[in-house]
Design brief:
Number of strands: 18
Strand order of the largest sheet: 14-16-15-17-18
Distance between the termini: 65 Å
Structural class: alpha+beta
Number of domains: 4
Strand content: 15-25%
Largest sheet: 5 strands, mixed
Radius of gyration: 34 Å
Length: 647
């Protein structure tokens, strides 16, 4: 060991030539001392006394990114993997969806966030692996974690028109490393990966086969192997990792429940009285009533089966709402509904071909009931019921057999009320079957169908004329509400002509006037931009908000989405939320995907969804803290506070 006593010091002067004068001896002594001090650390280190630097322990988690192919062609779906190689004895916390409360311990979830992607690449929501519970000394309950090797997949879609060249994706990866006794500080790692886009006829080769063995190209809209459902704060998940088994059965039941709830959305609710009126005509003949109900139910299921087939077999078609990408579809549906309304109200001035009457919903025929079922299902497409959106999104990414089974389940759930009404005709036997009262009901329902026709035609025109990111026009809502007001006015006026009963006159007159007043109020509310000063989405505007360290409330909507409008009016326009959104530290941004808005739809995919409504709230770091399709005022207020908006 090299000790301090080994450093040479000046000795007592000796005689002869080695003797130095006083000043020289002093200078020599100082020189030796200084050299000794300078050499002391190195000598001590060599002798093992102490180290000149603290040894940094090796990082137990190594993170890298890998592509599934060596190149990509236009319209290809490739995958980018974020690979965590975790040393033995260590683990990292699971992603946010799989973490559970752990007493006083607040684990930092693992997250993979896309911070930038070159034009021509659309990066979908990360797919995290299944977490496992790991017991640690610092917490009473096991913590959901990743250990060993964990791979997060990000599906990347190459645009069909992408030109050859290199494209880069930049990611921000956050994770917290723990062992059985303690956790380290969270780490933020920035990673980037580039891939060459080649010509459409060029050859590409798969790479990293071992890493991508668990990647399903069609993908599952899941978190950790489970499909999450959220309804106004009540959430649960269905484990679908077992293939055809209990998980699939539960998914079919949830899909059927979503189809049942579709009947109570603003899109479909007006059709129930029409069907009740139709069934009442044959209520006296139970067998005939049941057959007509089955026919209508088959019409509902047929439409959903056809829609599921399109999603399963047509590339690029992944959601029911994509029908509204095509204004021709909405315009055609509007015209068909208008013709059916004219037939129901008896307003044909020119006799159409005889086959038209066979499909008239006012006629008690099998084709008419089947057509009414198809029409009812079509009317449901602007709306998404609770549970149905997540189930449909999951089904869209599975094997074609599962896709079609889930969509049939949605159709069967939606058809259930009509099947029950036809099986128990006593439920509709009090509805007038013939005479002036029956005709009045038909005429009032015909006005409401004209309102539905005006809605479809109006949204079709709005889609054609929309120029994103500017909001589409809303003036067509006055035509829709005008037909609704006409229905109420006609009910109030004609009631005095068809009955002499004072009680009925008073009741239906008041009801008709309420419909008129509600329609006028609806016209004002639906054409008003509301109390929120919305910024309409572009990638540059969102990035600017993130750079300014602002909280962002991102609302996905469309003119044809009635659920979106209901949530905006009933939740986001709450005075408490409006007041929070007025601050300088928050940006209220709207993504309106009416018409051709590929940028907005790409953002919807990036948010991990295929359907709307959807609300996403980002904190000041650009990290999503809230993502839900059906939500409450309290949930939004809490999410804004979590994101950093002061009460």
């Amino acid at each position: 060991m090299f000790l301090l006593s080994h450093i040479p010091v000046a000795q007592k002067p000796v005689s002869g030539e080695n003797r130095a004068t006083g000043p020289q001896a002093l200078r020599r002594a100082w020189t030796v001392a200084v050299l000794g001090i300078l050499l002391l650390p190195a000598a001590a280190a060599a002798g093992g006394l102490f180290s000149t630097a603290t040894e940094t322990p090796s990082e137990p988690v190594k993170v890298r990114v890998l592509w599934s192919q060596d190149a990509a062609r236009p319209d290809d779906l490739v995958a980018l993997a974020v690979v965590f190689d975790i040393a033995d004895g260590f683990h990292i916390n699971a992603d946010r969806s799989q973490l559970k409360p752990a007493g006083d311990f607040n684990p930092v979830p693992t997250s993979v966030t896309v911070t930038a992607a070159d034009e021509g690449l659309t990066v979908e929501r990360p797919r995290y692996p299944r977490a496992e519970p790991i017991k640690a000394d610092y917490v009473a309950k096991p913590v959901m974690s990743f250990a060993g090797r964990a791979v997060v997949y990000l599906p990347v879609k190459v645009a069909p028109q992408a030109a050859p060249g290199s494209r880069k994706v930049t990611l921000k990866v956050t994770y917290q490393t723990c062992d059985a006794r303690s956790c380290r500080f969270p780490r933020d790692v920035t990673l980037s990966a580039a891939i060459d886009v080649v010509a459409a006829d060029a050859a590409v080769n798969p790479t990293n086969a071992d890493i991508f063995a668990g990647f399903n190209r069609k993908g599952a809209a899941t978190d950790g192997g489970g499909v999450r459902f959220d309804l106004f704060g009540w959430n649960f998940s269905v484990d679908t990792t077992g293939g055809v088994g209990l998980g699939l059965v539960l998914m079919l039941l949830v899909a059927a429940l979503g189809g049942l709830l579709l009947n109570f959305t603003p899109c479909v609710l007006p059709m129930i009285p029409i069907k009740i009126m139709s069934l009442s005509q044959s209520a006296a003949n139970r067998r005939r009533c049941l057959i007509l109900g089955i026919s209508m139910s088959l019409g509902v299921v047929f439409f959903w089966l056809a829609l599921g087939s399109v999603i399963a077999f047509v590339s690029g078609f992944t959601a029911t709402s994509q029908l509204f990408n095509y204004p021709v579809f909405t315009l055609a549906v509007g015209l068909i509904i208008a013709l059916m309304a004219a037939g129901m109200g008896g307003w044909f001035s020119v006799s159409p071909p005889q086959f038209v009457y066979r499909f008239n919903p006012s006629q008690e025929s099998l084709p008419g009931s089947f057509a009414l079922g198809v029409l009812t299902a079509i009317l449901s497409t602007p709306c998404t019921a609770p549970f149905m959106g997540a189930a449909a999104a999951w089904a869209a990414s599975r094997h074609w057999g599962i896709t079609m089974a889930v969509f049939v389940a949605i159709g069967m759930g939606m058809a259930l009320p009509y099947l029950l009404l036809s099986a128990f005709p006593a439920l509709v036997s009090r509805v007038p079957r013939s005479g002036p009262g029956s005709e009045l009901v038909k005429q009032v329902m015909a006005f409401f169908m004209l309102a539905a026709a005006a809605y479809f035609i109006g949204t079709g025109l709005a889609s054609l004329l929309a120029e994103p990111p500017a909001p589409p026009g809303r003036s067509y809502w006055w035509v829709v509400m005008g037909f609704c007001a006409a229905a109420g006015a006609w009910l109030a006026w004609r009631t005095w002509k068809v009955t002499a009963d004072t009680g009925r006159r008073v009741f239906f007159t008041i009801l008709g006037l309420l419909v008129v007043a509600g329609s006028l109020y609806g016209g004002v509310r639906l054409t008003d931009r509301g109390p929120i000063d919305w910024v309409y989405y572009t990638p540059a505007r969102l990035e600017k908000a993130f750079e300014a360290r602002k909280v962002v409330l991102l609302d996905f909507t469309a003119e044809w989405c009635l659920n979106c409008k209901a949530l905006e009016q009933g939740v986001l326009h709450d005075p408490r939320i409006v007041e929070r959104l007025k601050g300088n530290d928050v940006v209220a941004m709207k993504v309106d995907i009416t018409g051709k808005n590929p940028v907005g739809r790409a953002m919807l995919k990036k948010a991990g969804r295929l359907t709307i409504p959807l609300l996403v709230i980002y904190d000041r770091r650009g990290k999503p803290v809230f993502n839900a399709d059906f939500y409450t005022v309290e949930q939004v207020l809490a999410a804004l506070q979590d994101a950093g908006v002061k009460p």
